[in-house]
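To: structure subgroup
Subject: Chain for Friday's discussion

All,

I'm putting the inputs and outputs inline so they're searchable in the archive.
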Amino acid sequence: MIPKTLPQQEDHLFAVLSGKRFLQMEGLSNEVPFFIYPYPPEDALAVAAAKKRIKNRLSNAGIRVFEVNLYDLSVDLLKERGDWDEVLEVEPSLDKSEFTEMLQSMLNPQLCLAPAIRERLAQVEFEIFFLTGIGEVFPYIRSHNMLNNLQSVVKDKPMLMFFPGRYDQSATLGSSLVLFGRLKDDQYYRAKDIREQEA
């Protein structure tokens, strides 16, 4: 049963993430170790604070979390490649769809983001990978596209994506990510809802 209140979910998250079953990726039967924590977008600040507390508690328990915020990563990559100033310069003169297209080509998940995440993961020791900043990078980075491209990158450690919206799972319709509770991102069925995992 899914814990109802945010404090209950926070305690449940910590219990699941610090458990041997989760850390050793037991019971996945060869599926990717991807988990999603969907939350109401209006709770974003409270969830960010809870995430910080959970990371501290895990750290105190000797469990290292490595977090990548997609928005921060995107800005870092654009700055590293010398594209940041150009993006800022052209943004006012482009319409939204042109600007989105430009960013999508500059921040392609397969060619750019997944390799950058692979590189960062290789440089650190960690037990759990947090993927955040999903709402901030919409619409130029789509969560299902990101998850598909991370399947070959994050396979030896569990990954938890913090998702502002719903993760609708249906035996007949499949599973889909509904960003902000309104925008159906796309079918994505390989992740598990962390709130349904046993501690």
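Points worth raising on Friday:
The beta strands are 34-39, 65-69, 128-132, 159-170, 174-179, 183-187, 192-193.
The first strand starts at residue 34 and ends at 39.

D.
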